[in-house]
Amino acid sequence: MKAEVITLDASNAGSVELDDAVFALEPRTDILQRMVRYQLSKRQAGTHKAKARSEVSGPNKKIYKQKGTGQARHGNDKPPQFRGGGRTAGPVPRSHAHDLPKKVRALALKHALSVKAKSDALVVLDKAEVTEAKTAQLRGKFAGLGLSNALIIDGAVLQDNFALAARNIPNVDVLPVQGINVYDILRREKLVLTRAALEALEERFK
């Protein structure tokens, strides 16, 4: 499939041929869902913690005598039935990450790219470069291109001026091609790929 290439000034810069095996797949929501769940689970902190009865501070003295009170036989007041006692089977620090086959992850990225191409939400940019790191100027260029909510993927190295100018624009993310991922593609309305990013993706999926 063919896609038009534009510049930041909204002028035409030719066209490129997109690989049908990457950008023309019939999107599968089940694969995309698995990948998004994998990403979100992997980045979950998992630092929640509750104290068990052995970790609660306080004396270990027997709270009342063993016999004659008519109450249950307790040692100290750290069991979970007492106020301020430990929690039974409470959360502990752990990783929420789970495995997902490498081929499924690669396929999910192809399907995410195909979703944007199929919905006309894919924009091919000639270069992601500006002469000055001016946020207001870059915001104006994005407005001219209709990019109010977008993920911009450049080559392996981002231009410093472009990255600095774009980082304070809301709902616009800029990533190098090695950082491209399914979750960020789907959470933004438009996907912008530079020529350098397309070349790197073609090399990646060879």
Question: What would your notes on this structure say?
Answer:
The chain is of the alpha/beta class. It contains seven helices and six strands, in the order ββαααβαβαβαβα. Helix 5 (160-166) links the parallel strand 4 and strand 5. The longest helix has 17 residues, at 102-118.
Q: What's this entry about, in short?
A:
The chain is α/β, with parallel strands linked by helices. Helices cover 34% and strands 15% of the residues.
The biggest beta sheet is recorded as: 6 strands, mixed
Low-confidence stretches: none
Structural class: alpha/beta
Write down the overall mean pLDDT.
Answer: 95
User: Any idea what the shape is?
Assistant: elongated
Q: What is the helix content?
A: 25-40%
Strand content: 5-15%
Q: Give the C-alpha Rg.
A: 27 Å
**Termini, distance in Å?**
17 Å
